[in-house]
Amino acid sequence: MKILGIIPARGGSKGVPGKNIKLLGGKPLLQYTSDIALKSNLLDKLVVSSDDDAIIEVAERLGVSAPFKRPSDLATDKSPTLPVIKHALSYFKNIGEEFDAVCLLQITSPFRTIETLNKGLNKFKENGCDSLVSVREVPHEYNPHWTFRCNDIDQLEIATGEKEIITRRQDLPKAYHRDGSIYITKTSVIMEKNSLYGDSIAYVESNEKTLVNIDTPEDWVKAEEIFKNM
């Protein structure tokens, strides 16, 4: 199975201006993701998709190819991810290179490990699923079996639709939420179903102690604290 690694890195971040190449622990934020991706021998090619010359220059200095410049209409703060992936796949298809799947690695999750990445890639290859995402376990107090929704008569119902609530924490089934660190999807699902997930989704659990998703200045401060303690 041939897998394309894509690191999306647009230039116009508003929450943390210039965050993709802003220095965290003395290194551009991009480098945390690129270093891990370059260590994996399970990605057949790794590229950065960016609209920004400065980001492209840093990427290439870090040893990551940036063979195209992303169109500006795919680099706004409202641009969805799927068209960005499709643009990269189309670029390679036009030069005669095709991939079975895409591994999307977002710069905003800098502390993923090579072990987690390779575990996810191997599981995706072996599982036969449409996609794989990295996840964290939901704390029991937020488990969907213990959360409620409001019905039409302004009363609470169990969010899962069950009539009786599970009373013991020990009886709760595990629940997970995607953490944004790793997405792997078959090319056919992306191109034909216009989906990042498809019908079957496998998962790999991330290391909770080093998890952060940098979107705000507060997230950046958290990332600095994690870096100091690593």
Report on this model:
- This protein has 230 residues and is an alpha/beta fold.
- It has two domains: 3-134 and 177-229, Spore Coat Polysaccharide Biosynthesis Protein SpsA, Chain A; 139-173, no CATH class.
- The chain has six helices and ten strands; from the N terminus they run βββαβααβαββββαβα.
- The strands form three sheets. The chain has a six-stranded mixed sheet with strand order 4-1-5-9-6-10.
- It starts with a strand and ends with a helix.
- The relative contact order is 0.18.
Based on the model shown, name its key terms:
single chain, 230 residues, Spore Coat Polysaccharide Biosynthesis Protein SpsA, Chain A, 2 domains, two-stranded antiparallel sheet, globular
Write the layout of secondary structure elements.
Blueprint: E1 3-8, E2 23-24, E3 27-28, H1 29-39, E4 45-49, H2 53-61, H3 81-94, E5 101-105, H4 114-127, E6 131-137, E7 148-150, E8 156-158, E9 176-186, H5 187-193, E10 201-205, H6 217-229
Parallel strand pairs: 1-4, 1-5, 6-10
Antiparallel strand pairs: 2-3, 5-9, 6-9, 7-8
Put the structure in a nutshell:
The chain has six helices and ten strands. It has 230 residues and is of the alpha/beta class.
Give the termini distance in whole angstroms.
Answer: 34 Å
Q: Could you say what the CATH topology of the largest domain is called? A: Spore Coat Polysaccharide Biosynthesis Protein SpsA, Chain A
The low-confidence parts are: none
Total of domains: 2
The tally of strands reads 10
SS summary, helix count: 6
Can you name the CATH architecture of the largest domain? Alpha-Beta Complex
Shape: globular
How are the strands ordered across the major sheet? 4-1-5-9-6-10
What is the alpha-carbon Rg in Å?
19 Å
Give the biggest sheet.
Answer: 6 strands, mixed
CATH class of the largest domain: Alpha Beta
Structural class: alpha/beta
The average pLDDT value, as a whole number, equals: 95
Fourth CATH level, the homologous superfamily of the largest domain: Spore Coat Polysaccharide Biosynthesis Protein SpsA, Chain A
Give helix and strand order, one letter per element, not per position: EEEHEHHEHEEEEHEH
Strand content: 15-25%
The percentage helix is: 25-40%
